[in-house]
Prior knowledge:
By secondary structure, chain A is mostly beta strands. Chain A has strands spanning about 5, 10-15, 20, 25, 30-40, 45-50, 55-60, 60-65, 75, 85-95, 100-105, 110-114. In chain A, a hairpin with a 5-residue loop joins strand 5 (about 30-40) and strand 6 (about 45-50).
Amino acid sequence: GNSVTQMEGPVTLSEEAFLTINCTYTATGYPSLFWYVQYPGEGLQLLLKATKADDKGSNKGFEATYRKETTSFHLEKGSGQVSDSAVYFCALSARNTGGFKTIFGAGTRLFVKA
Amino acid sequence: NAGVTQTPKFQVLKTGQSMTLQCAQDMNHEYMSWYRQDPGMGLRLIHYSVGAGITDQGEVPNGYNVSRSTTEDFPLRLLSAAPSQTSVYFCASSYSTPVGEQYFGPGTRLTVT
């Protein structure tokens, strides 16, 4: 079946360091891929998405490229900020038995230190 | 727009009690879903609905019931609460199929003692 695997956290970085959170997926067909972010005490909110191979999603300085050949959708940011500290979820949406379903990874907690 | 709203924000139940978690959205979304979030396990789909009058089971439906009598509301019922249902519950909605972006409510933190 479909699945999403993220790097385990917590990930701790210094401010202005390069930020990357790995995500790989398993899916039949052509899923849409998403990154959601969850700040403390809040629900998830969409950070970026890509709906087909080689698409690059970007938002708030974050980027992720849909790589079908490596089944990956790694999240990157050139210079992390303390305000980026949150939990990040990689997700895919694809056709499954019974219709489309969204599957989330386990989440990666990120701490960015000043 | 209020987006997706959930009540209550916090709830403590005793084993065996029942309760309903409320979820409403004002975006006229067809697709709504309930997830539970547990440490290290991400979000797991409990039930979902593709429109008023239509519901289906997700990954972890046991112990929960849903109904969708209107486009706006999608309540989640715990029939007989168990400690294993201690979790944070999120309701989400989206425009059409889950190929699109999902909008999440702020969550309900439930503790079952």
